[in-house]
Design goal:
One of its GO terms (biological process) is methylation. It is built from five helices and five strands, in the order E-E-E-H-H-E-H-H-E-H. By secondary structure, the chain is α+β, with helices and mostly antiparallel strands.
Length: 153
């Protein structure tokens, strides 16, 4: 069973989805899409996101339960190692998962990350330091990086 709740963030409405095992998704949305079903992991994720937006939290501590291929899971796990306020390139992530030629595949997996902010795909930028795609939009990516004090062009 999946549980849903919503958070009004500085970037707009955020939908938080969890199962009994962990957080399944954090997505930006325009309006609620599911009935609110409070549950302990959903509430804890919301609490941590509120603290993140208030600059009181820089590292999330939540069980994660996103569904994806083995490769996507490797990429998403590697994303969680990029520290708050820092960035990495797609090439850096490809090297971190011992697949240095898989830069394009890393980009595709990064784009399919269902757990925005908590799994920090926004911290991945182009090798030249410029912003590249973000499912939530480049404006949100720029805001998140600026919020964390990360350098980018």
């Amino acid at each position: 069973m999946l549980y849903y709740d919503y958070l009004a963030s500085p970037l707009g409405l955020v939908e938080v989805t969890a199962s009994e095992q962990g957080v399944v998704a954090v997505t930006f949305c325009d309006m609620p899409r599911q009935p609110v079903q409070p549950q302990r992991l959903v509430q804890e994720a919301k609490r941590q996101l509120i603290a993140y937006f208030a600059q009181e939290l820089s590292e999330f501590d939540l069980p994660l339960a996103a569904t994806g291929t083995v490769f996507q899971q490797q990429v998403w796990q590697a994303l969680t190692t990029v520290p708050y306020g820092q960035t990495a390139s797609y090439g850096d992530i490809a090297k971190a998962i011992n697949n240095p030629k898989g830069v394009r595949a890393v980009g595709l997996a990064n784009g399919k990350n269902p757990i925005a902010i908590i799994v920090p795909c926004h911290r991945i930028i182009g090798a030249n330091g410029t912003l590249t795609g973000y499912a939530g939009g480049l404006d949100k990516k720029a805001w998140l990086l600026a919020h964390e004090g990360a350098a980018f062009r």
